[in-house]
Amino acid sequence: MLARRTRVLPGFGLSLGFTLAYLSLIVLIPLSAVFIKTAGMTFDEFWTAVASPRVVASYKLSFGTSLLAAAINAVFGLILAWGLVRYTFPGKKLVDALIDLPFALPTAVAGISLTALYAKNGWLGQFLEPLGIKIAFGPPGILVALIFIGLPFIVRTVQPILEDLDAEFEEAAASLGANRWQTFRRVVFPTLLPALMTGFALAFARAVGEYGSVIFIAGNIPMVSEITPLMIITKLEQYDYAGATAIASVMLIASFVLLLAINGLQAWTSKRQGRTS
Amino acid sequence: MSIEVKDIHKSFGAFKALDGVSLDLPKGELIALLGPSGCGKTTLLRIIAGLENADYGSVRLSGEDATSKHVRERHVGFVFQHYALFRHMTVFENVAFGLRVKPRGERPSEAIIRDKVHRLLDLVQLDWLANRFPSQLSGGQRQRIALARALAVEPQVLLLDEPFGALDAKVRKELRRWLRRLHDELHISSIFVTHDQEEALEVADRIVLMNKGRVEQIGNPHEIYDEPATSFAYSFIGNVNEFRGRVEGDYVRVGEDVLAHGQKGLADGSLVVAYTRPHDTEIVVDGAGRTGISAKVNRILASGSVSRVELVANGAAREGRTDYFEVELTPAEIAGLELETGKRVRIASRRLSVFAEKS
């Protein structure tokens, strides 16, 4: 008989069991259903479902705009977080609360208001349209919507790290002769990078899965502005459940691989900074 | 480089951190800024470094006005209490930082940087840690790396803000001896801030004693310890026995008892504080005379070459005191006086310093 190792904290078996059971019920079982349903197809059927030109165009659009939106958010989210942490100004609390609005707002509301804003006769659209810039009902509109919903992820992950960043590091750099830009590039930015990458990954993941806000502004023109989640819905509406899950499984795997890559990159930077995590 | 500070004032809101501080420090010395917390010593150091701006007053480094110069241009090395090492850089890169950020024209070649960093790491005896990250070092090692980093840019002044404050007692002692040796080697003008009088007395060439935003006394450790200029200097440095009373001719009257003060120019009837060090304090066995503070032996701590006797005053000298009077004697003296717990004695002083009481 094996000797039971005793632990100081009680309930290890129970809590681990609960964690695994709950995770299976809520996450793993629904996910595996996607694969099981897909497995019922022949390879040819599967391939036709996931590799038809219209679907491939939607992959490109979904992943491309999501990456671009997350990258744009990384830049401006960082600036926003910087402004919120480093300076005091009247109404700062209010601005801080506004950051979370995309989290709280029903995505459909966001979609409708963005569409109204950027449509041909909208507040902004009426000025942009004569300049030849068409935002709503095309890929640029999708980008705008994805930037909108992804912003809080960057700000909220970078903000606490920035708050913890002692002024001492910047003072030390200055006393060693570094100018503001050198201090930012060599001292501040590398410290923020892991958090920034986490925020990027979250914003990206959210953008890939976003449906509600995009669908109103996208225009949904086949081969041009159809996002992958819309393709799934379209298949479902045609009662092609297997086709829908086939596309879903492709999305699932692609997202998983991308997140894994970003996490790997993040672990690598952390390790390079001599942190043990 | 000489450091000259003139009439510095600095307030944080309603709090006056510095209230007219002037210093003229010669070149090449190791100077301690000593004082209780909140006395303004760190603020003064930061103003000298250029990390903080004074509300009023000027700073001159090597005779040159540096008041409005940015910290980048002052050529000072600053060492922080919590090291402030860049966490994402190796020890080597931390030390090389100051060289790498130099303007393109002045930046040394990679080979020179490598050579210089290794020499500095040798100097702080940590060359074998060059490829580690700061999180893998002990506190004492981190502080030495921080010092090497500050020295890399060849500063004219080295400023250290409580450099040993975050370390444990043993490492602290080691490191401050090491700092003294390093200073003897490099002769770079250095100022370090500390609230630990022992540290200041042991390491510094000169001590600037501060209290409530003002300089109380400037002097070498011997002067600071043996010739305190003010009542604050007396009570802050070393152990001291304190008596409060009124001048009566050649005596200070404390309630029923009197103490001979042996000083001239004290106005009769003025309120005074008198100080004496434990080793300048005497115990007179009852009956031998009428001067001295009447007291009772509370405890005799006999260990080592010096024994300490704790006494409780009987009369008015006891008022407002929570601690005991302390006298240092040799074991032979204690035997000669036949001291024992509870014995009634008088406390007298070989050297009493009297200061007018601030009302």
Structure, described:
The complex is a heterodimer of chains A (277) and B (359). In chain A, 77% of the residues lie in helices and 0% in strands. Chain A has helices at 12-39, 43-51, 53-86, 92-99, 101-104, 107-118, 125-128, 139-164, 167-175, 180-209, 212-218, 228-237, 241-272. With 277 residues, chain A is an all-alpha fold. Chain A has one domain (40-276): MetI-like (MetI-like fold, Orthogonal Bundle), CATH 1.10.3720. The longest helix of chain A has 34 residues, at 53-86. Chain A has 13 helices and no strands. Chain B is an alpha+beta fold and 359 residues long. Chain B is built from nine helices and 20 strands. Chain B has helices at 41-49, 91-100, 110-123, 139-151, 169-186, 197-203, 221-226, 231-236, 331-337, and strands at residues 3-12, 15-25, 30-34, 56-61, 64-65, 76-79, 157-161, 189-194, 206-211, 214-219, 241-248, 251-254, 257-260, 271-276, 281-285, 293-302, 307-313, 325-329, 344-349, 353-356. In chain B, the strands form four sheets. A six-stranded mixed β-sheet of chain B has the order 6-7-8-3-9-10, with helices on both faces. The longest helix of chain B has 18 residues, at 169-186. The mean pLDDT of chain B is 87.
Index terms:
heterodimer, A: 277 residues, mainly alpha, MetI-like fold, 13 helices, B: 359 residues, alpha+beta, 6-stranded mixed β-sheet, 5-stranded antiparallel β-sheet, 20 strands, 25% helix
Q: How many distinct folded domains of chain A? A: 1
Low-confidence stretches of chain A: none
Largest binding interface between chains: A-B, 22 and 29 residues
On the 0-100 scale, what is the average pLDDT of chain B? 87
What is the CATH architecture annotation of chain A? Orthogonal Bundle
- Provide mean pLDDT of chain A, rounded: 86
Largest sheet of chain B: 6 strands, mixed
Question: What's the helical proportion of residues of chain A?
Answer: over 70%
Given helix and strand content, the structural type of chain B is alpha+beta
In the sheet with the most strands of chain B, the strands line up as 6-7-8-3-9-10
Question: Beta-strand level of the residues of chain A, as a percent range?
Answer: under 5%
How would you spell out the order of helices and strands of chain B?
Answer: EEEHEEEHHHEHEHEEHHEEEEEEEEHEE
The count of helical stretches of chain A stands at 13
End-to-end distance of chain A: 35 Å
> How many helices of chain B?
9
Span from first to last CA of chain B? 41 Å
